[in-house]
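Design request, tokens follow.
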């Protein structure tokens, strides 16, 4: 080393530094020298995932995030989706057969304060493996920042509402307290009546249960069951006999139609005339019956000569007496004293 010039020594020192730097980059940067294939995962919000972030299955790193691209909701003709963020993953070729079509990609972190990574749930082993260049939909991480922002906005609006309506809220609270106090006084004053009401409700419930039990006994009783069976048998008999009866009625109707069709126009006019005359005779008979009913009514009421003669008991008794006297003294028909 003493024989080396200053320039050579400086060059060796720089070379050693570059080798050490490359080793650190190789170890800490996750540089892979083996074969890898590409996967693309779409997110609406991948959190704080940056290029170079690990891609893990469990605690084992199987690749890295090659890039994060902003799509802004543009339509992807290949998938038909509108991704907001698309991440480009480089995954080790030796795990290709273990990452299946139903694999789930989600954003997590290595620790509470660690960097964001993409974790992979490999999916069902029975499903086919993802091909090189496949595009899948990822699971967005929870938006704690958005939740905090919304909570802060809600608290701010609530505080503003309380501040602007302080007097109204105070009046509302006082009214509520007054109402509660009045309700308490009312309940205390009517404590006995409330007990009586509850007792009446309990008795009414018991009576209702008894009525329902009785009704249940009637419904499920043997008499009702026999009645229902008789009704079923009657309906079955009617259903069995109704078709022949209907057929007979149809036959009679058809015969009547045929008979009417066979009658000529002159005979139909004669039938109409006979029906009209029969109707007139029926009307005259009804009028005669009405007159007879009126006459009978007059006689029963004792109006007129016949009514007085028939309905007056004194006249009837006088006639009976006269007939008995003539029976015993027939000569009175020819001789008057």
């Amino acid at each position: 080393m003493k024989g080396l010039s200053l320039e050579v020594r400086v060059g060796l020192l720089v070379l050693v530094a570059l080798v050490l730097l490359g080793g650190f980059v190789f170890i800490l940067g996750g540089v892979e020298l083996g074969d890898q294939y590409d996967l693309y995962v779409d997110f609406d919000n991948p959190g704080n995932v940056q290029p170079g972030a690990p891609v893990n299955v469990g605690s084992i790193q199987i690749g890295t995030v090659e890039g994060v691209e902003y799509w802004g909701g543009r339509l992807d003709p290949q998938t038909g989706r509108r991704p907001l963020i698309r991440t480009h993953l480089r995954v080790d070729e030796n795990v290709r057969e273990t990452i299946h079509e139903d694999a789930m990609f989600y954003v997590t972190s290595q620790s509470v304060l660690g960097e964001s990574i993409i974790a992979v749930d490999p999916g069902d082993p029975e499903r086919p493996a993802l091909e090189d260049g496949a595009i899948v939909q990822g699971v967005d991480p929870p938006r704690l920042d958005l939740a905090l922002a919304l909570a802060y906005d809600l608290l701010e609006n609530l505080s503003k509402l309380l501040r602007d309506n302080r007097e109204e809220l105070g009046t509302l609270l006082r009214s509520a307290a007054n109402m509660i106090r009045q309700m308490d006084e009312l309940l205390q004053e009517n404590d006995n009546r409330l007990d009586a009401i509850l007792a009446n409700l309990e008795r009414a419930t018991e009576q209702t249960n008894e009525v329902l039990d009785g009704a249940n006994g009637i419904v499920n009783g043997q008499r009702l069951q026999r009645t229902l069976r008789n009704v079923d048998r009657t309906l079955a008999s009617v259903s069995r006999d109704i078709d022949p009866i209907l057929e007979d009625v149809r036959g009679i109707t058809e015969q009547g139609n045929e008979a009417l069709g066979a009658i000529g126009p002159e005979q139909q006019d004669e039938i109409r005339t006979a029906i009209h005359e029969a109707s007139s005779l029926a009307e005259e008979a009804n009028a005669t019956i009405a007159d007879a009913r009126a006459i009978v009514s007059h006689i029963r009421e004792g109006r007129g000569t016949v009514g007085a003669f028939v309905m007056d008991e004194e006249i009837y008794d006088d006639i009976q007496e006269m007939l008995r006297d003539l029976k015993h003294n027939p000569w009175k028909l020819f001789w008057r004293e």
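Comment from the thread starter after seeing the answer: thanks! The chain is about 60% helix and 15% strand.
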